[in-house]
Design a protein that fits this description.
626 residues, alpha+beta, Phosphoenolpyruvate Carboxykinase, domain 1, Phosphoenolpyruvate Carboxykinase, domain 3, Phosphoenolpyruvate Carboxykinase, domain 2, nine-stranded mixed beta sheet, six-stranded mixed beta sheet, 18 helices, globular
Length: 626
């Protein structure tokens, strides 16, 4: 450690906190902390270890400082983000790229020096009067081939408390990397506060230095902009994975339980508000994770882990009927952070919770009453559409016993799903790995929701549900997926689901719980227990297989007419989709030629089917695979 770094740390840290930091003999870490102290100028510095006492300190300070407030149920707290700080800020989240380099036209990037200069100005003295919290975590299980060490510096006790619920403590794990420079870094300041929230959201910036693997975030508290190891470090991990030959994905990991006690593990990629967490939490199945997964080939077999150990979940429509396991946790003692819901007399309420709501209370707008309007004249709902809950996975009764297995679990199937009202059938399987990666993963589209700032209901291109987090041109990303499929001993089948298909009158064609049946069909399909029909877009289920599953899983009849309406192939819509996606990829640099070959084959199959059967092809017109 250089004398300058040593002088800064000795001057600004208490002996106890200095000892905890120096027990990690890593020069890069020490320099990061010292440089950040010089820039942000905190009044004090707290270094957290894995100890229960240090973790409890963070939670206690969150309440003492007013970033959280206790609720009626023991362990429950409420946090409010600022009125204009309620979602991920895509426009002001930028990559910093060295001079002379480029990420292309479709990624939000800027020249590194200019970005660092701006961030330096915004972070200067941003922690004056506050305490800097040094938190150390492990992404993925500890002592694992998947493990990545990560360090966050923040002045927000809410952010640090959220991370303690969402990530595995990594202080002891960090000791094992010694002086290695291979870890992710995050520096965050909520900036100047008023009524415990960031006062200047217009100056919100989230910059990601790809070269030095550092995330900078300022003037925001919303977890999607500040909890650095979620989507922000996902971007760093995607590039790291590309260099090293594995995948970092916006995916859940869950186990589906079949006959003879077998457990079949699936990963699934869905954009926000598209059924991702509810799929991972299907009753009777077990969850490993709901948001981010690392996938590696180990001895020719695809294995995966959950990067996280908690859930930062959308709370809208979580109720006792549709989400009984989560609803139970949200209504019993245990550690839960609610954010941006309505509070009345110490009790939280949110849209779709199945309960009568009070007409007054406190929410993200402050004191609230029914009919209250925002500065633009729009009525303020009691609970924000993007309001959240944060919990530890260990609180879930359905946590899979292999959730923390250092070796991960074998991936037996990959699922892609988006919010699509008019094109994809509810369930289909790809013909092979390349067909699935290209026509289901790369072609994923979704209608926008409240999880990001901007207009809702717009059809958005969302390859692998990861576009917002890509740190390389999309063509290179798809090529990495195709290469990952090479050399596998057992290739996981790829499926596409669509829970949001509508009829011509705009009515949904599926019930929320139909996904339970789709999963059971996929589980059987993985093990060769059901056949499929050969559609021009992929392989779809037979009615004779789905009908008994609906009875077994949901105890309801599944009429042939209902099946025909849901699984009719809509030819014009599928052709338009191909045209939209091909246009995007023809403008994307480094798209592999096989992409266009597979898309052309798909277009040819669909066009020939249209010539033979017309614009809408019922399942009865299709043949069973041999």
């Amino acid at each position: 450690m250089s004398s300058n770094i040593n002088d800064i740390l000795q001057k600004r840290l208490s002996k106890e906190n200095l000892d905890k930091l120096l027990a990690l003999s890593n020069h890069k870490l020490h320099k990061f902390v010292a440089d950040s102290i010089q820039l942000c100028n905190p009044d004090s510095v707290f270094v957290g270890t894995d100890s229960p006492e240090d973790i409890a300190y963070i939670r206690r300070k969150a309440i003492e400082l007013g970033e959280e407030a206790p609720l009626n149920i023991e362990g429950h707290t409420i946090h409010f983000d600022g009125f204009y700080d309620q979602a991920r800020d895509k426009a002001n989240t930028r990559y910093l790229v060295p001079e002379g380099q480029s990420l292309g036209a479709n990624l939000n990037w800027m020249e590194k020096k200019a970005g660092l200069d701006e961030m330096s100005d915004l972070l200067k003295d941003s922690m004056k009067g506050k305490e800097m919290l040094v938190r150390i975590f492990c992404l993925g299980p500890v002592n694992s081939p998947f493990s990545i060490s990560a360090v966050q510096l923040t002045d927000s006790t809410y952010v640090a408390h959220s991370e303690d619920l969402l990530y595995r403590s990594g202080y002891e794990q960090f000791k094992k990397i010694g002086d290695s420079p291979d870890f992710f870094r995050v520096l965050h300041s909520a900036g100047e506060l008023e009524n415990f929230v960031s006062q200047y959201p217009k100056n919100r910036r989230v910059y990601i230095d790809l070269e030095d693997e550092i995330v900078y975030s300022v003037n925001t508290q919303y977890a999607g902009n500040t909890v650095g190891f979620k989507k922000l470090c996902l971007r760093l991990a995607i590039r790291k994975a590309l260099r090293e030959g594995w995948l970092s994905e916006h995916m859940f990991v869950m186990g589906s339980h079949g006959t003879s006690g077998r457990t079949t593990y699936f990963t699934g990629a869905f954009p926000s508000f598209c059924g991702k967490t509810s799929t991972a939490m299907i009753p009777g199945e077990t969850i490993i994770g709901d948001d981010i997964a690392y996938l590696r080939k180990i001895d020719g077999v695809v294995r995966t882990v959950n990067v996280e150990s908690g859930v930062f979940g959308i709370i809208e429509d979580v109720n006792a009927k549709d989400d009984p396991l989560i609803f139970k946790i949200l209504n019993e003692p245990g550690e839960v952070i609610f954010s941006n819901v309505l509070i009345k007399d110490g009790k939280p309420y949110w849209s779709g919770d199945g309960r009568a709501h009070p007409e007054t209370g406190v929410n993200f707008s402050g004191e609230w009453r029914k009919g209250k309007k925002d500065p633009e004249g729009k009525e303020i709902p009691p609970s924000h559409k993007n309001s959240r809950y944060t919990i530890c996975l260990k609180a879930l009764a359905n946590l899979d016993p292999k959730a923390n297995d250092p070796e991960g679990v074998e991936v037996s199937g990959v699922i892609y799903g988006g919010r699509d009202s008019d094109t994809w059938v509810p369930l289909q399987q790809s013909f092979d790995w390349a067909h699935g990666v290209i026509t289901m993963g790369a072609c994923l589209e979704s209608e926008t929701t409240a999880a990001t700032i901007g207009k809702q209901g717009v059809r958005a291109f969302q390859p692998m549900s990861n576009l917002d987090f890509l740190s390389m041109p999309v063509g290179e990303y798809i090529d990495a997926h195709l290469k990952f499929g090479k050399g596998m001993k057992r290739i996981p089948p790829i499926f596409a689901v669509n829970y949001f298909l509508k009829d011509k009158d705009g009515n949904y064609l599926n019930d929320k719980k139909d996904k339970y049946v789709w999963l059971k069909w996929m589980e059987k399909r993985v093990h060769g227990e059901v056949k499929a029909l050969l559609a021009p877009t992929g392989l779809i289920p037979l009615h004779e297989d789905l009908k008994p599953l609906f009875k077994q899983v949901l105890n309801k009849d599944y009429a042939r007419e209902q099946y025909d309406q849901q699984f009719t192939i809509r030819i014009p819509e599928n052709l338009r989709k191909i045209d939209r996606i091909e246009k995007i990829f023809r403008e994307a640099p480094n798209t592999p030629s096989i992409f266009f070959e597979v898309m052309e084959q798909q277009k040819k199959r669909i066009t020939l089917a249209q010539q033979k059967f017309g614009d809408n092809i019922p399942p009865s017109a299709l043949s069973v695979e041999k």
